[in-house]
Amino acid sequence: MLSRHLDPIVAIATAPGRGAVGIVRASGKDLTALVDTLCGRSLKAREATYLPFLAADGQAIDQGLALLFPAPHSYTGETVLELQAHGGPVVLQLLLARCLEVGNGLGLRLAEPGEFTQRAFMNGKLDLAQAEAVSDLIDASTEAAARSASRALGGAMSAEVGELRDALIKLRMLVEATLDFPEEEIDFLQQADALGQLARLMSRLDAVLDRTRQGALLREGIKVVLAGQPNVGKSSLLNALAGAELAIVTAIPGTTRDKVSQTIQIEGVPLHVIDTAGLRDAHDEVERIGVARSWDAIADADVILFLRDLTRIGEAAYDADDQAIALRIGQGSRVLQVFNKADAVPGLALPDGALSLSAKTSAGIADLRQRLLQQVGWHATPEGVYIARQRHVSALQRTREHLDLAQDMATLPVPALDLLAEELRLAHDALGEITGAFTPDDLLGEIFSRFCIGK
Length: 455
Description:
With 455 residues, the chain is of the alpha/beta class. The protein has helices at 32-39, 89-102, 115-122, 128-139, 143-153, 156-180, 188-191, 194-220, 234-242, 285-299, 316-329, 365-375, 390-410, 417-435, 441-449; strands at 9-12, 19-28, 49-54, 60-69, 79-87, 109-110, 222-227, 260-266, 269-275, 303-309, 335-340, 355-356. It folds into three domains: 2-126, 2-Layer Sandwich (Gyrase A, domain 2), CATH 3.30.1360; 139-217 and 386-435, tRNA modification GTPase MnmE domain 2 (Four Helix Bundle (Hemerythrin (Met), subunit A), Up-down Bundle), CATH 1.20.120; 222-301 and 303-375, Rossmann fold (3-Layer(aba) Sandwich).
């Protein structure tokens, strides 16, 4: 896709299906021939003109609005033509085919997914973080995610990364100057307060990293798996969390044979809740497959709700099976012990950090929702968060690692300035990946290929 970025492109820019209005969008260096032939006249810049869109025989394909955005004052930075017609699929396909027919001599071709936004990035209209925010805004599944994506598109994240970059460049310049002019005998680390600058930079980076993690949670959500023995109330808990009867609930152990998934939101954070088959030695082949899938889901979870039945605590066989499950799940930070059926056995002592609730009466469900957010480190209010991706988090983490190594080099008895300069350079490169300053072409292709066609 990157090798053909000079071709003029065209695509239907509105969603598939019927609608009141449909848009065909074209972008290229010179669309004069397309405008003159399709519209039968020239167009004033950024002014909507109502006219017929002409077929090859001079008949009107449709009547609609034409808008011309000459370069560089357009979304892509190239000249952009938008044809707003009635939103029927046949009409839009006819209009698209006519554009390709007229533009054949210009090399006009169908746009690939995300190519309009890719051109905006390549022409300096958006940086990479803002370009990704366009896709995130379209794909947002909650109001909080949509508002946060809008902040990222407006440059909130890019501005913070830019401040970090400027501080890092300043520090790099001081180090490089000391390496270039050793005869000056400047005590770099003390007189330039290099260690102080580095410490302040790392502190600001930590704050940005924390906000970025919150933004990634808003975009990616949390994968929560309900795990435990059969008939402990996993399906009832899924229904209680979702506020709807999504899973079949009976007193028969093994009712759930396969995963049942539902996405809910808590404070704008998407939770992908997965109800799994009860964990036991199954004799039925279908149930055995379901149990194997349960363990696969547990391995891939962000949070595991290990559900126990308070009414069966003390039964030798039940306790032994629970212990075996606990050993296999482990006791890591992603495991949350939950004791169900508190309405039947109130006041029972629980292990530290465990929760008791009743999926039947919904008592304790509100506490569980808050614990789920705490479990993954959510502490922000959606109004102050910009959307982010795991790639951004990884880039900031690598930046922090290189700054840690730089600090080590700077605090040696004899500071290793050449190694310090190299770590600062690597930190700068990692930071630049967020906005696209140091991003490989194959990563750009992967990012933009996930967009919808026409955007």
